[in-house]
From TrEMBL:
It is found in: Cytoplasm. The gene is pheS. It comes from Halorubrum sodomense. Residues 254-499 form the Aminoacyl-transfer RNA synthetases class-II family profile domain. It catalyses: tRNA(Phe) + L-phenylalanine + ATP = L-phenylalanyl-tRNA(Phe) + AMP + diphosphate + H(+). Signal peptide: none annotated. This is Phenylalanine--tRNA ligase alpha subunit. It holds the Pfam family tRNA-synt_2d. L-phenylalanine binds at residues 348, 391-393, 431, 457. HAMAP family: Phe_tRNA_synth_alpha2. Belongs to the class-II aminoacyl-tRNA synthetase family. Phe-tRNA synthetase alpha subunit type 2 subfamily.
Amino acid sequence: MRLPERQLAVLEAASATDDRTVAEIAAATDLKPETVAGAAFDLADDGLVEVASVTDESLKLTDEGRTYVDEGLPETRLYRAGLDAGADAEPASMGAVIGGADLDGPEVDIALANFARKGFGSVDGGELSVDPDADLDADPEARALAALAEADREGAALDASDLDVDGAVIDRLDSRGLLAVAESVTRTVTLTDDGVDALMTGVEATETVGALTPELLASGEWRDAEFAEYNVEAEAETARGGRKHVLRRTADRVKDVLVGMGFSEMEGPHADADFWINDCLFMPQDHPARTHWDRFALDVDPMEEIPEELIDRVESAHRDGWGEDGDGYHSPWSQDFAREVALRGHTTSLSMRYLSGVAGAELEPPQRYFSVEKVYRNDTLDPTHLLEFFQIEGWVMAEDLSVRDLMGTFEEFYRQFGITDIRFKPHYNPYTEPSFELFGEHPETGEEIEIGNSGVFREEVTGPLGVDCDVMAWGLALERLAMLTTGAEDIRDLHGTLADIDFLRNAEVSY
Ligand SMILES: N[C@@H](Cc1ccccc1)C(=O)O
Protein backbone atom coordinates (compact mmCIF):
# COMPACT_ATOMS: atom_id res chain seq x y z
CA MET A 1 0.00 0.00 0.00
CA ARG A 2 1.13 3.51 -0.72
CA LEU A 3 0.16 6.58 1.29
CA PRO A 4 1.22 10.20 1.18
CA GLU A 5 4.20 10.79 3.47
CA ARG A 6 2.26 12.73 6.09
CA GLN A 7 -0.46 10.12 6.35
CA LEU A 8 2.17 7.43 6.71
CA ALA A 9 3.88 9.38 9.51
CA VAL A 10 0.57 9.77 11.37
CA LEU A 11 -0.29 6.10 10.84
CA GLU A 12 3.07 5.06 12.28
CA ALA A 13 2.73 7.41 15.25
CA ALA A 14 -0.76 6.18 16.11
CA SER A 15 -1.37 3.22 18.38
CA ALA A 16 -4.03 0.55 18.37
CA THR A 17 -4.13 0.34 22.12
CA ASP A 18 -4.05 3.89 23.30
CA ASP A 19 -5.68 7.04 22.04
CA ARG A 20 -3.05 9.61 21.05
CA THR A 21 -4.00 13.23 20.83
CA VAL A 22 -3.31 15.23 17.72
CA ALA A 23 -0.88 17.33 19.80
CA GLU A 24 1.03 14.22 20.87
CA ILE A 25 1.25 12.93 17.32
CA ALA A 26 2.31 16.38 16.13
CA ALA A 27 5.14 16.35 18.67
CA ALA A 28 6.16 12.83 17.69
CA THR A 29 6.10 13.42 13.93
CA ASP A 30 7.32 16.99 13.87
CA LEU A 31 4.25 17.96 11.87
CA LYS A 32 1.90 20.83 12.61
CA PRO A 33 -1.25 19.88 14.54
CA GLU A 34 -3.43 20.98 11.60
CA THR A 35 -1.42 18.82 9.21
CA VAL A 36 -1.80 15.87 11.57
CA ALA A 37 -5.54 16.46 11.86
CA GLY A 38 -5.91 16.67 8.05
CA ALA A 39 -3.89 13.49 7.51
CA ALA A 40 -5.80 11.71 10.31
CA PHE A 41 -9.15 12.54 8.67
CA ASP A 42 -7.86 11.23 5.33
CA LEU A 43 -6.71 8.03 7.03
CA ALA A 44 -10.08 7.78 8.78
CA ASP A 45 -11.81 8.05 5.39
CA ASP A 46 -9.82 5.00 4.31
CA GLY A 47 -10.73 3.19 7.53
CA LEU A 48 -7.13 3.01 8.75
CA VAL A 49 -7.60 5.05 11.92
CA GLU A 50 -10.45 6.26 14.03
CA VAL A 51 -10.63 9.92 15.01
CA ALA A 52 -12.56 10.80 18.18
CA SER A 53 -13.13 14.17 19.77
CA VAL A 54 -13.22 14.95 23.46
CA THR A 55 -14.44 18.27 24.71
CA ASP A 56 -12.38 19.64 27.60
CA GLU A 57 -13.20 22.47 29.87
CA SER A 58 -10.46 24.86 30.88
CA LEU A 59 -10.42 27.99 32.99
CA LYS A 60 -9.56 31.35 31.51
CA LEU A 61 -9.20 34.80 33.00
CA THR A 62 -11.78 37.37 32.02
CA ASP A 63 -10.64 40.89 31.10
CA GLU A 64 -11.51 42.05 34.60
CA GLY A 65 -9.56 39.14 36.11
CA ARG A 66 -6.54 40.05 33.98
CA THR A 67 -6.74 43.69 35.13
CA TYR A 68 -6.68 42.59 38.75
CA VAL A 69 -3.67 40.36 38.12
CA ASP A 70 -1.84 43.45 36.85
CA GLU A 71 -3.14 46.01 39.34
CA GLY A 72 -3.95 43.88 42.40
CA LEU A 73 -7.41 42.90 43.64
CA PRO A 74 -9.39 45.95 44.89
CA GLU A 75 -9.44 44.56 48.47
CA THR A 76 -5.65 44.05 48.38
CA ARG A 77 -5.15 47.61 47.21
CA LEU A 78 -7.43 48.83 50.00
CA TYR A 79 -5.42 46.85 52.56
CA ARG A 80 -2.11 48.30 51.30
CA ALA A 81 -3.48 51.86 51.33
CA GLY A 82 -4.70 51.23 54.90
CA LEU A 83 -1.20 50.15 55.93
CA ASP A 84 0.25 53.27 54.29
CA ALA A 85 -2.25 55.38 56.26
CA GLY A 86 -1.17 53.70 59.51
CA ALA A 87 -4.53 51.97 59.99
CA ASP A 88 -2.72 49.01 61.53
CA ALA A 89 -1.95 51.20 64.55
CA GLU A 90 -5.13 53.28 64.76
CA PRO A 91 -8.29 53.60 62.61
CA ALA A 92 -7.88 55.90 59.60
CA SER A 93 -10.50 57.90 57.70
CA MET A 94 -12.15 55.78 54.99
CA GLY A 95 -12.14 58.60 52.47
CA ALA A 96 -8.38 59.04 52.75
CA VAL A 97 -7.70 55.29 52.48
CA ILE A 98 -9.96 54.85 49.46
CA GLY A 99 -8.26 57.83 47.80
CA GLY A 100 -4.88 56.33 48.58
CA ALA A 101 -5.92 52.99 47.05
CA ASP A 102 -6.96 54.79 43.85
CA LEU A 103 -10.29 52.94 43.77
CA ASP A 104 -13.20 54.34 41.90
CA GLY A 105 -16.83 53.62 41.11
CA PRO A 106 -17.90 50.03 41.62
CA GLU A 107 -14.39 49.08 42.73
CA VAL A 108 -15.02 50.74 46.10
CA ASP A 109 -17.92 48.40 46.93
CA ILE A 110 -16.02 45.40 45.62
CA ALA A 111 -13.01 46.34 47.76
CA LEU A 112 -15.02 46.89 50.94
CA ALA A 113 -17.09 43.72 50.64
CA ASN A 114 -14.10 41.44 50.03
CA PHE A 115 -11.85 43.25 52.52
CA ALA A 116 -14.24 42.40 55.32
CA ARG A 117 -14.96 38.89 54.03
CA LYS A 118 -11.27 38.01 53.86
CA GLY A 119 -10.64 39.37 57.35
CA PHE A 120 -8.16 41.99 56.12
CA GLY A 121 -9.52 44.40 58.75
CA SER A 122 -12.74 46.15 59.67
CA VAL A 123 -14.76 49.24 58.89
CA ASP A 124 -16.56 51.13 61.64
CA GLY A 125 -18.18 54.54 61.71
CA GLY A 126 -16.42 55.83 58.60
CA GLU A 127 -13.02 54.62 59.80
CA LEU A 128 -10.99 51.68 58.61
CA SER A 129 -8.57 49.49 60.54
CA VAL A 130 -6.35 46.81 58.98
CA ASP A 131 -5.26 43.60 60.63
CA PRO A 132 -1.45 43.76 60.69
CA ASP A 133 -1.30 39.94 60.69
CA ALA A 134 -3.32 39.36 57.50
CA ASP A 135 -1.23 37.32 55.03
CA LEU A 136 -1.89 38.72 51.57
CA ASP A 137 0.45 36.27 49.86
CA ALA A 138 -1.65 33.42 51.15
CA ASP A 139 -4.89 34.81 49.61
CA PRO A 140 -6.08 31.79 47.54
CA GLU A 141 -8.09 33.98 45.14
CA ALA A 142 -5.02 36.02 44.24
CA ARG A 143 -2.93 32.86 43.89
CA ALA A 144 -5.48 31.20 41.59
CA LEU A 145 -5.65 34.29 39.40
CA ALA A 146 -1.85 34.48 39.22
CA ALA A 147 -1.64 30.80 38.23
CA LEU A 148 -4.19 31.31 35.43
CA ALA A 149 -2.30 34.35 34.16
CA GLU A 150 0.91 32.31 34.12
CA ALA A 151 -0.76 29.44 32.23
CA ASP A 152 -2.20 31.94 29.76
CA ARG A 153 1.26 33.32 29.04
CA GLU A 154 2.57 29.82 28.44
CA GLY A 155 -0.36 28.84 26.28
CA ALA A 156 -1.28 26.02 28.65
CA ALA A 157 -4.86 25.06 29.53
CA LEU A 158 -5.67 24.60 33.22
CA ASP A 159 -8.75 23.11 34.71
CA ALA A 160 -10.00 23.38 38.29
CA SER A 161 -7.99 20.35 39.40
CA ASP A 162 -4.71 21.88 38.22
CA LEU A 163 -5.14 24.84 40.58
CA ASP A 164 -3.97 24.27 44.12
CA VAL A 165 -7.08 25.81 45.70
CA ASP A 166 -10.42 24.43 46.69
CA GLY A 167 -13.57 24.42 44.62
CA ALA A 168 -15.22 27.18 46.63
CA VAL A 169 -12.45 29.59 45.63
CA ILE A 170 -13.01 28.83 41.95
CA ASP A 171 -16.77 29.30 42.39
CA ARG A 172 -16.16 32.59 44.13
CA LEU A 173 -13.88 33.85 41.33
CA ASP A 174 -16.48 32.69 38.82
CA SER A 175 -19.26 34.56 40.62
CA ARG A 176 -17.02 37.66 40.82
CA GLY A 177 -16.73 37.41 37.03
CA LEU A 178 -12.94 37.09 37.13
CA LEU A 179 -12.70 33.77 35.37
CA ALA A 180 -14.70 31.85 32.79
CA VAL A 181 -14.94 28.28 31.66
CA ALA A 182 -13.75 27.76 28.07
CA GLU A 183 -14.42 24.61 26.06
CA SER A 184 -11.81 23.10 23.80
CA VAL A 185 -11.96 20.07 21.59
CA THR A 186 -9.15 17.55 21.67
CA ARG A 187 -8.98 14.99 18.89
CA THR A 188 -7.54 11.59 19.47
CA VAL A 189 -6.37 9.11 16.86
CA THR A 190 -6.41 5.32 17.23
CA LEU A 191 -5.33 2.65 14.74
CA THR A 192 -8.12 0.42 13.46
CA ASP A 193 -7.61 -3.27 12.63
CA ASP A 194 -7.22 -2.31 8.98
CA GLY A 195 -4.61 0.25 10.01
CA VAL A 196 -2.67 -2.41 11.94
CA ASP A 197 -2.92 -4.81 8.98
CA ALA A 198 -1.67 -2.14 6.62
CA LEU A 199 1.35 -1.42 8.80
CA MET A 200 2.14 -5.13 9.10
CA THR A 201 1.94 -5.68 5.35
CA GLY A 202 4.05 -2.63 4.75
CA VAL A 203 3.13 0.87 3.66
CA GLU A 204 5.31 3.02 1.47
CA ALA A 205 5.21 6.74 1.08
CA THR A 206 3.98 7.99 -2.27
CA GLU A 207 6.08 10.62 -3.91
CA THR A 208 3.10 12.66 -4.98
CA VAL A 209 1.78 15.49 -2.88
CA GLY A 210 -1.96 16.02 -2.74
CA ALA A 211 -2.02 19.58 -1.53
CA LEU A 212 0.38 22.43 -1.09
CA THR A 213 0.97 22.98 2.63
CA PRO A 214 2.61 25.79 4.60
CA GLU A 215 5.44 23.35 5.43
CA LEU A 216 6.12 22.58 1.79
CA LEU A 217 6.30 26.27 1.02
CA ALA A 218 8.42 27.19 4.03
CA SER A 219 10.91 24.35 3.59
CA GLY A 220 11.19 24.82 -0.15
CA GLU A 221 10.32 21.12 -0.53
CA TRP A 222 7.62 22.07 -2.99
CA ARG A 223 10.32 22.54 -5.59
CA ASP A 224 11.05 18.82 -5.73
CA ALA A 225 7.60 17.57 -4.80
CA GLU A 226 5.50 15.75 -7.31
CA PHE A 227 1.91 16.91 -7.10
CA ALA A 228 -1.01 14.60 -7.58
CA GLU A 229 -2.91 15.44 -10.75
CA TYR A 230 -6.40 16.78 -10.54
CA ASN A 231 -8.96 14.58 -12.17
CA VAL A 232 -10.86 17.20 -14.07
CA GLU A 233 -13.19 14.57 -15.46
CA ALA A 234 -14.38 13.32 -12.07
CA GLU A 235 -18.14 13.52 -11.56
CA ALA A 236 -18.91 16.60 -9.55
CA GLU A 237 -22.16 17.66 -8.04
CA THR A 238 -23.90 20.43 -9.98
CA ALA A 239 -24.24 23.55 -7.92
CA ARG A 240 -27.48 25.35 -8.68
CA GLY A 241 -27.89 28.84 -7.38
CA GLY A 242 -31.12 30.76 -7.53
CA ARG A 243 -31.81 32.55 -10.77
CA LYS A 244 -34.44 34.54 -12.52
CA HIS A 245 -37.29 32.51 -13.98
CA VAL A 246 -37.04 32.36 -17.76
CA LEU A 247 -40.49 33.93 -18.10
CA ARG A 248 -39.46 36.86 -15.90
CA ARG A 249 -36.27 37.20 -17.95
CA THR A 250 -38.37 37.27 -21.10
CA ALA A 251 -40.71 39.88 -19.58
CA ASP A 252 -37.76 42.05 -18.54
CA ARG A 253 -36.24 41.76 -21.99
CA VAL A 254 -39.57 42.66 -23.61
CA LYS A 255 -39.75 45.79 -21.47
CA ASP A 256 -36.18 46.76 -22.37
CA VAL A 257 -36.84 46.26 -26.07
CA LEU A 258 -40.05 48.30 -26.02
CA VAL A 259 -38.52 51.08 -23.97
CA GLY A 260 -35.68 51.04 -26.50
CA MET A 261 -38.29 51.48 -29.25
CA GLY A 262 -39.62 54.60 -27.52
CA PHE A 263 -42.56 53.14 -25.58
CA SER A 264 -43.65 54.15 -22.05
CA GLU A 265 -45.15 51.67 -19.61
CA MET A 266 -48.85 51.63 -18.62
CA GLU A 267 -50.19 50.38 -15.33
CA GLY A 268 -53.67 49.79 -13.99
CA PRO A 269 -56.07 47.47 -12.18
CA HIS A 270 -56.27 43.71 -12.62
CA ALA A 271 -59.92 43.85 -11.57
CA ASP A 272 -61.63 46.46 -13.69
CA ALA A 273 -65.04 47.64 -14.87
CA ASP A 274 -66.49 45.90 -17.90
CA PHE A 275 -66.67 49.39 -19.30
CA TRP A 276 -62.88 49.54 -19.69
CA ILE A 277 -62.46 45.87 -20.49
CA ASN A 278 -65.22 45.64 -23.15
CA ASP A 279 -67.59 48.57 -23.71
CA CYS A 280 -64.89 51.02 -24.75
CA LEU A 281 -63.77 48.39 -27.22
CA PHE A 282 -67.15 48.42 -28.96
CA MET A 283 -67.76 44.89 -27.75
CA PRO A 284 -71.54 44.41 -27.80
CA GLN A 285 -72.90 43.58 -24.37
CA ASP A 286 -74.37 40.34 -25.68
CA HIS A 287 -71.04 39.20 -27.19
CA PRO A 288 -70.32 35.56 -26.21
CA ALA A 289 -66.99 36.56 -24.62
CA ARG A 290 -68.95 38.67 -22.15
CA THR A 291 -71.04 35.86 -20.77
CA HIS A 292 -70.30 34.24 -17.45
CA TRP A 293 -68.71 31.33 -19.29
CA ASP A 294 -65.67 33.31 -20.25
CA ARG A 295 -65.17 36.00 -17.69
CA PHE A 296 -64.21 35.90 -14.02
CA ALA A 297 -66.89 38.21 -12.60
CA LEU A 298 -66.23 39.55 -9.11
CA ASP A 299 -68.87 39.96 -6.46
CA VAL A 300 -67.87 43.53 -5.53
CA ASP A 301 -69.47 46.97 -5.75
CA PRO A 302 -69.88 48.42 -9.25
CA MET A 303 -67.22 50.91 -10.35
CA GLU A 304 -68.36 54.51 -9.75
CA GLU A 305 -65.45 56.60 -10.95
CA ILE A 306 -65.95 56.61 -14.72
CA PRO A 307 -66.39 59.99 -16.45
CA GLU A 308 -70.10 60.48 -17.24
CA GLU A 309 -69.64 62.07 -20.69
CA LEU A 310 -67.41 59.19 -21.68
CA ILE A 311 -70.10 56.70 -20.65
CA ASP A 312 -72.64 58.66 -22.71
CA ARG A 313 -70.42 58.70 -25.79
CA VAL A 314 -69.64 54.98 -25.53
CA GLU A 315 -73.32 54.19 -25.04
CA SER A 316 -74.26 56.24 -28.09
CA ALA A 317 -71.60 54.50 -30.23
CA HIS A 318 -73.08 51.16 -29.18
CA ARG A 319 -76.70 52.17 -29.73
CA ASP A 320 -76.54 54.43 -32.78
CA GLY A 321 -73.01 54.21 -34.12
CA TRP A 322 -70.20 56.77 -34.38
CA GLY A 323 -69.22 59.04 -37.25
CA GLU A 324 -71.12 60.03 -40.32
CA ASP A 325 -71.89 56.66 -41.75
CA GLY A 326 -71.37 54.67 -38.53
CA ASP A 327 -74.00 52.24 -37.42
CA GLY A 328 -74.44 50.96 -33.88
CA TYR A 329 -75.71 47.63 -32.66
CA HIS A 330 -79.19 48.95 -31.91
CA SER A 331 -79.28 46.42 -29.13
CA PRO A 332 -79.89 47.00 -25.43
CA TRP A 333 -77.00 48.62 -23.57
CA SER A 334 -76.93 48.77 -19.78
CA GLN A 335 -74.83 51.15 -17.78
CA ASP A 336 -75.10 48.81 -14.78
CA PHE A 337 -73.47 46.01 -16.72
CA ALA A 338 -70.72 48.42 -17.87
CA ARG A 339 -69.91 49.23 -14.25
CA GLU A 340 -69.64 45.60 -13.14
CA VAL A 341 -66.17 44.49 -12.10
CA ALA A 342 -64.33 41.42 -13.41
CA LEU A 343 -60.75 40.20 -13.75
CA ARG A 344 -59.47 41.64 -17.00
CA GLY A 345 -59.37 39.17 -19.87
CA HIS A 346 -56.90 41.37 -21.72
CA THR A 347 -54.84 44.42 -20.92
CA THR A 348 -56.54 46.39 -23.67
CA SER A 349 -58.47 47.80 -20.67
CA LEU A 350 -55.26 49.68 -19.83
CA SER A 351 -54.99 50.99 -23.38
CA MET A 352 -58.58 52.30 -23.11
CA ARG A 353 -57.82 54.03 -19.81
CA TYR A 354 -54.70 55.66 -21.24
CA LEU A 355 -56.31 56.66 -24.54
CA SER A 356 -59.30 58.20 -22.73
CA GLY A 357 -57.00 60.44 -20.74
CA VAL A 358 -58.12 59.19 -17.28
CA ALA A 359 -54.65 57.78 -16.64
CA GLY A 360 -53.13 61.23 -17.19
CA ALA A 361 -51.02 60.22 -20.20
CA GLU A 362 -49.92 62.71 -22.87
CA LEU A 363 -52.28 62.48 -25.82
CA GLU A 364 -50.65 64.66 -28.48
CA PRO A 365 -49.61 62.32 -31.32
CA PRO A 366 -47.24 60.58 -31.74
CA GLN A 367 -47.48 58.43 -28.59
CA ARG A 368 -46.37 54.89 -27.78
CA TYR A 369 -47.40 52.88 -24.73
CA PHE A 370 -47.02 49.26 -23.56
CA SER A 371 -47.55 46.93 -20.62
CA VAL A 372 -46.41 43.39 -19.80
CA GLU A 373 -49.09 42.31 -17.37
CA LYS A 374 -51.23 39.43 -16.30
CA VAL A 375 -54.67 38.68 -17.78
CA TYR A 376 -57.27 36.11 -16.75
CA ARG A 377 -59.43 33.91 -18.94
CA ASN A 378 -61.81 31.12 -18.18
CA ASP A 379 -60.18 28.86 -20.77
CA THR A 380 -59.62 25.12 -20.63
CA LEU A 381 -56.04 24.27 -19.71
CA ASP A 382 -54.17 22.68 -22.59
CA PRO A 383 -50.65 22.78 -24.01
CA THR A 384 -51.19 26.30 -25.34
CA HIS A 385 -53.68 27.75 -22.84
CA LEU A 386 -53.46 28.83 -19.22
CA LEU A 387 -56.16 30.47 -17.10
CA GLU A 388 -53.84 33.35 -16.40
CA PHE A 389 -51.01 34.51 -18.57
CA PHE A 390 -49.01 37.59 -19.44
CA GLN A 391 -50.00 39.82 -22.27
CA ILE A 392 -47.67 42.22 -24.02
CA GLU A 393 -50.05 45.06 -24.74
CA GLY A 394 -49.04 48.01 -26.87
CA TRP A 395 -50.31 50.85 -28.99
CA VAL A 396 -48.99 53.59 -31.22
CA MET A 397 -50.96 56.76 -31.83
CA ALA A 398 -49.99 58.76 -34.91
CA GLU A 399 -51.42 60.43 -38.01
CA ASP A 400 -51.94 58.09 -40.97
CA LEU A 401 -50.86 54.69 -39.74
CA SER A 402 -50.99 51.76 -42.12
CA VAL A 403 -50.75 48.00 -41.93
CA ARG A 404 -47.10 48.33 -42.98
CA ASP A 405 -46.39 50.27 -39.77
CA LEU A 406 -47.99 47.49 -37.76
CA MET A 407 -46.03 44.74 -39.50
CA GLY A 408 -42.79 46.72 -39.35
CA THR A 409 -43.18 47.21 -35.61
CA PHE A 410 -43.67 43.48 -35.01
CA GLU A 411 -40.78 42.55 -37.26
CA GLU A 412 -38.49 44.89 -35.38
CA PHE A 413 -39.78 43.67 -32.00
CA TYR A 414 -39.52 39.92 -32.66
CA ARG A 415 -36.13 40.27 -34.33
CA GLN A 416 -34.75 41.23 -30.91
CA PHE A 417 -35.61 37.68 -29.81
CA GLY A 418 -34.10 36.02 -32.85
CA ILE A 419 -37.53 35.46 -34.44
CA THR A 420 -37.51 36.54 -38.06
CA ASP A 421 -40.28 34.52 -39.67
CA ILE A 422 -43.55 35.79 -38.20
CA ARG A 423 -46.67 35.44 -40.30
CA PHE A 424 -49.80 37.61 -40.40
CA LYS A 425 -53.29 36.33 -41.00
CA PRO A 426 -56.34 38.53 -41.49
CA HIS A 427 -58.62 38.29 -38.50
CA TYR A 428 -61.74 39.84 -37.00
CA ASN A 429 -62.01 41.84 -33.77
CA PRO A 430 -65.06 43.99 -32.98
CA TYR A 431 -62.66 46.82 -32.10
CA THR A 432 -60.07 46.85 -34.89
CA GLU A 433 -60.27 47.13 -38.63
CA PRO A 434 -58.19 45.76 -40.21
CA SER A 435 -57.15 43.05 -37.74
CA PHE A 436 -54.34 40.49 -37.92
CA GLU A 437 -53.33 37.46 -35.99
CA LEU A 438 -49.61 36.77 -35.67
CA PHE A 439 -48.05 33.33 -35.93
CA GLY A 440 -44.55 32.05 -35.26
CA GLU A 441 -42.94 28.72 -36.05
CA HIS A 442 -42.17 26.52 -33.06
CA PRO A 443 -38.44 25.68 -33.15
CA GLU A 444 -38.96 22.05 -32.04
CA THR A 445 -42.19 20.94 -33.67
CA GLY A 446 -42.13 23.22 -36.69
CA GLU A 447 -45.81 23.95 -36.06
CA GLU A 448 -47.24 27.43 -36.44
CA ILE A 449 -48.45 28.78 -33.14
CA GLU A 450 -50.50 31.88 -32.57
CA ILE A 451 -48.45 34.51 -30.79
CA GLY A 452 -50.62 37.60 -30.91
CA ASN A 453 -53.54 39.61 -32.16
CA SER A 454 -53.47 43.15 -33.49
CA GLY A 455 -55.13 45.80 -35.57
CA VAL A 456 -55.97 49.44 -36.06
CA PHE A 457 -58.69 50.68 -33.68
CA ARG A 458 -62.05 51.48 -35.29
CA GLU A 459 -63.46 54.96 -35.16
CA GLU A 460 -66.18 53.54 -32.85
CA VAL A 461 -63.39 52.98 -30.33
CA THR A 462 -61.18 56.05 -30.77
CA GLY A 463 -64.03 58.52 -31.39
CA PRO A 464 -65.81 58.23 -28.00
CA LEU A 465 -62.40 58.28 -26.27
CA GLY A 466 -61.76 61.67 -27.89
CA VAL A 467 -58.86 60.52 -30.06
CA ASP A 468 -58.97 61.80 -33.64
CA CYS A 469 -55.94 60.18 -35.21
CA ASP A 470 -54.94 56.57 -35.96
CA VAL A 471 -54.09 54.11 -33.20
CA MET A 472 -52.63 50.71 -33.99
CA ALA A 473 -52.56 48.21 -31.16
CA TRP A 474 -51.82 44.63 -30.19
CA GLY A 475 -51.85 42.01 -27.49
CA LEU A 476 -49.06 39.44 -27.69
CA ALA A 477 -48.72 36.43 -25.44
CA LEU A 478 -45.53 36.47 -23.38
CA GLU A 479 -45.70 32.71 -22.77
CA ARG A 480 -45.97 31.99 -26.49
CA LEU A 481 -42.92 34.16 -27.12
CA ALA A 482 -41.11 32.19 -24.40
CA MET A 483 -42.20 28.92 -26.06
CA LEU A 484 -40.49 30.08 -29.24
CA THR A 485 -37.30 31.21 -27.48
CA THR A 486 -36.97 28.24 -25.09
CA GLY A 487 -38.45 25.53 -27.28
CA ALA A 488 -41.01 24.62 -24.60
CA GLU A 489 -43.70 22.51 -26.23
CA ASP A 490 -46.21 22.81 -23.45
CA ILE A 491 -47.00 26.18 -21.95
CA ARG A 492 -47.54 24.41 -18.62
CA ASP A 493 -43.82 23.52 -18.50
CA LEU A 494 -43.11 27.22 -18.17
CA HIS A 495 -45.37 28.19 -15.33
CA GLY A 496 -48.15 27.11 -13.09
CA THR A 497 -48.25 24.17 -10.72
CA LEU A 498 -47.08 21.67 -13.33
CA ALA A 499 -43.98 23.64 -14.40
CA ASP A 500 -41.04 21.41 -15.20
CA ILE A 501 -38.15 22.43 -12.93
CA ASP A 502 -35.55 20.57 -14.99
CA PHE A 503 -36.74 22.20 -18.15
CA LEU A 504 -36.63 25.63 -16.50
CA ARG A 505 -33.16 25.01 -15.06
CA ASN A 506 -31.77 24.03 -18.41
CA ALA A 507 -33.65 26.57 -20.51
CA GLU A 508 -31.10 28.54 -22.50
CA VAL A 509 -32.09 31.83 -23.99
CA SER A 510 -29.84 34.39 -25.61
CA TYR A 511 -31.12 37.36 -23.62
N1 LIG B 1 -57.14 42.34 -26.84
C1 LIG B 1 -56.70 41.45 -27.86
C2 LIG B 1 -55.38 41.89 -28.43
C3 LIG B 1 -55.53 43.19 -29.18
C4 LIG B 1 -55.25 44.36 -28.54
C5 LIG B 1 -55.37 45.56 -29.22
C6 LIG B 1 -55.78 45.53 -30.56
C7 LIG B 1 -56.02 44.36 -31.20
C8 LIG B 1 -55.93 43.18 -30.52
C9 LIG B 1 -56.54 40.06 -27.30
O1 LIG B 1 -56.52 39.89 -26.11
O2 LIG B 1 -56.40 39.10 -28.03
